Automatic annotation (TrEMBL):
Its EC number is 4.2.99.18. The gene is nth. Pfam families: HhH-GPD. One of its GO terms (molecular function) is class I DNA-(apurinic or apyrimidinic site) endonuclease activity. Residues 29-186 form the HhH-GPD domain. The keyword Cell division does not apply. SUPFAM superfamilies: DNA-glycosylase. The keyword DNA-binding does not apply. This is Endonuclease III domain-containing protein.
Length: 219
């Protein structure tokens, strides 16, 4: 599967796209939000000042700053609580201790933060610290299930199930994540997947069963 999506979307060398705390907060903002609105929300959030200033700001002001993201009223307190927990941790706002912590412990530390799920934690660990985890977002989940790599299960369980099938090789995991995500956005969409032009068609269980009439994804 990795070879086919690499051929379609190219090699993706592993390198952090933004600093770890930016990645963490942006991923919280990205939940149920497209990347343009996520970025706009993050940029406006940072106009409130440094992380200490964001913690100290009234929660309504934080919610207003991130209003381009969906559910700002519930995300604002979670972001503030997460920042407080990080500020009060041994490394303060520096998350680099995650680099050397056992992966299981690092995942637990991150997912214990308010509003941080396994996807967000995995993104930070893989993208920023090249740790061997595999983030499963909605696109990766849908494509992996339709092709038959994993049986139907929730996104959370899919993290473990897919990781068991994949080599513990961060560059491999990074490229596969990015290319499956791209494939889900461009070809294997929620409704009317474009099976006629799909590079995974020959190995896809859903295509084998439904031909060109793969049903809409119900999650
Ligand atoms: S063949 Fe269709 S359902 Fe299967 S991965 Fe490709 S686009 Fe998705």
């Amino acid at each position: 599967m990795k070879e086919q999506v690499r051929e379609a979307y190219g090699e993706k060398p592993l390198s952090p796209r933004r600093d770890p705390l930016h990645e963490l907060i942006s991923t919280i903002l990205s939940q149920r939000t497209n990347w343009r609105d996520e970025d706009a929300a993050y940029q406006e959030l940072r106009t409130l000042g440094d992380w200490d200033a964001i913690i100290a700001a009234p929660t309504e002001q934080v919610a207003h700053a991130i209003r381009r993201s969906n559910y700002p009223e519930s995300k604002a307190p979670r972001i503030q609580q997460t920042l407080v927990a990080i500020r009060d941790s041994p490394g303060g706002y520096d998350l680099d201790f995650l680099k050397n912590m056992p992966v299981k412990d690092a995942l637990k530390w991150l997912t214990d933060l308010p509003g941080v799920g396994v996807k967000t934690a995995s993104l930070v660990l893989l993208f920023n610290y090249a740790r061997p985890v595999f983030p499963v977002d909605t696109h990766v989940h849908r494509v992996s299930t339709r092709v038959g790599a994993i049986p139907k299960m929730g996104e959370q369980a899919a993290h473990k199930a897919l990781l068991k099938l994949l080599p513990p090789d961060p560059p491999f995991l990074y490229e596969l994540h990015i290319n499956l995500l791209t494939h889900g956005q461009r070809v294997c969409s929620w409704h009317h997947p474009k099976c006629g032009v799909c590079v995974l068609r020959a190995r896809c269980d859903a295509f084998a069963v439904f031909g060109g009439r793969v049903p809409s994804w119900k999650g």
